[in-house]
Design brief:
494 residues; mainly alpha; three-stranded antiparallel beta sheet; 17 helices; 51% helix; extended
């Protein structure tokens, strides 16, 4: 062996170290005892108790459950989408987008959204040659929905197909697309929202049954018949049949010797069964939508502050669902590139265009920052709002603007020569007597409420009653200035 090819002990040790770092150690097979099964059972507790068949969730038949489910789905399925080709070959991205539109992708997206309720959804990809503007390509010609019961996952999270004889095999690569709702290492099946609705659904059905009995008992007057003490048992039985006819048909022939009274019955309180039904609906609303205000109206009504909070929850769920669908379709796009253009590194991605109201809070924040002098570059707009750079241009700063300057990293910060004067001016604005008096005046009702409330629950209930009457715009501006000032002071000091 020549000296040139001879490895030193140090090289050998480094190679062994890299080998250890590249090897998995804490695997399920090593850490836990697994039964003789060749797959990982679904850890969903409800499915375990019901025999492990996800068909249990498909049998849900409830108007409120379907309404909140479709409300969440519609936030994504109703939105337009595009294939963003700003990175990579825009012509290839356009070819893929045009082809996916032909596959009725909206229906596929609805099927993928079922992963929210069931935990996961599986689609089989049918590939074939397609004539395009770029020549003949191998593209998906169909994306077919498959039942979850046909599939399992092994210890490594790989998808297994289970045939009618219970034989399980690993599916081929680039053949099955799996959409999962928040999977983990211990649960590759994902988290099913339907699991959280199982018991509310069961209690609601039981509550409605007893509510009908309750309504019959307290909703209809009772007929009481009085017969002479000398009446025989046969006469009493005949009289009872007459009363039954009176209740059912509202007419009866009563002997002259007997009398009839209608006794009105009244419930002393509200129906406990309807309270149970309302609770079940509320639990299902929270499971699917994370909130209840958009589907129910409480007896105490709602406030603008409550509506804002509930809407923010809706926004978060919509963006999370959109990211789940985008992840699945982007996996399909990566497969298309791997088959047709395996050497390409820059790959386009799918983007679901969410409505502007889901970006409202972000727009207001950026608007406030711009008014304070912060400037954003083109990359920030593309990354944050998903608008292709070819559709807009950045307006240049006004002459004499010294509050901020552009940097290559897109960060808006103080111009070095004017940092001190700008910060001092902001400090003067924040420390003005008028501003302090305004803040004190705005906060006064809240302070008085806190002093008079006996506990936190009472304070939480009453605060919503006074918030809509408070003009908080000036306070928001002051808080925004304080936050920006603290950041800019740190930048200037650095």
């Amino acid at each position: 062996m020549s000296k040139k090819n001879r490895k030193t002990p140090s090289d050998t040790q480094n190679g062994a170290k890299q080998l250890r770092l590249a090897t998995e150690i804490a695997t399920r097979a090593v850490a836990t005892f697994v039964a003789s099964e060749d797959y990982l059972p679904n850890p969903d507790k409800i499915l375990k108790e019901q025999g492990g068949n996800i068909k249990v969730y498909r049998e849900y038949n409830d108007g409120h459950h379907d309404a909140v489910k479709q409300k969440r789905f519609a936030a994504i399925s109703s939105r337009p989408w595009t294939i963003d080709g700003s990175k990579g070959d825009a012509k290839k991205a356009k070819v893929i987008e045009d082809h996916l539109w032909k596959l009725e992708l909206r229906n596929t997206i609805l099927q993928m959204l079922e992963a929210i309720g069931y935990g996961y959804a599986v689609h089989e990809i049918i590939w074939n040659t397609v004539e395009t503007e770029m020549g003949v390509l191998i593209l998906p010609t169909a994306i077919k929905d498959r039942q979850q019961e046909w599939f399992k996952f092994d210890d490594e999270g790989k998808l297994l197909f289970q045939d009618k004889n219970n034989n399980r095999t690993i599916v081929p690569d680039m053949k099955f697309l799996v959409t999962r709702n928040r999977p983990t290492a211990s649960n590759p099946y994902g988290v099913p929202v339907c699991s959280k609705c199982f018991w509310p659904m069961a209690f609601k059905k039981g509550g409605l049954k007893f509510f009908m009995i309750y309504a019959e008992k307290f909703g209809m007057p009772k007929a009481i018949g009085k017969v002479p003490a000398s009446a025989t048992e046969t006469e009493q039985t005949t009289f009872l049949k007459m009363l039954s006819g009176l209740v059912r048909d509202a007419v009866a022939v009563i002997p002259q010797t007997g009398t009839v009274e209608l006794l009105e019955t009244h419930a002393t309180a509200g129906s406990p069964y309807m309270e149970l039904v309302h609770w079940a609906d509320s639990e299902m609303s929270k499971a699917w939508l994370g909130e209840t205000l958009t589907t129910e109206q409480t007896s105490s009504g709602g406030t603008q502050a409550m509506a804002t909070v509930h809407n923010e929850v809706r926004e978060d769920l919509a963006m999370d669902d959109a990211a789940m669908i985008e992840s699945s379709i982007n996996q399909l796009i990566r497969w298309i590139y791997a088959i047709n253009w395996p050497t390409e590194k820059d790959i386009p991605w799918m983007q679901i265009i969410l409505p502007e109201d889901l970006q409202g809070s972000r727009i207001e924040r950026d608007k406030s920052l711009k008014e304070l002098g912060v400037r954003f570059n083109q990359d920030y707009i593309v990354d944050t709002y998903g608008i292709d750079s070819k559709y807009f241009t950045m307006a240049e700063d006004e002459p004499g603007s010294s509050f901020a300057e552009h940097h290559e990293n897109g960060c808006g910060c103080f111009a070095e020569g004017d940092a001190k004067s700008s910060i001092e001016k902001m400090i003067q604005d924040l420390s003005s007597k008028d501003l302090q008096e305004q803040i004190e005046e705005l906060a006064k009702p809240i302070v008085e409420l806190a002093e008079h409330c006996g506990n936190y629950e009472e304070f939480e209930t009453e605060i919503y009653k006074i918030l809509p009457n408070l003009s908080s715009k000036k306070m928001e501006e002051a808080v925004t200035k304080c936050l920006v000032l603290s950041e800019m002071q740190g930048r200037a000091d650095a």
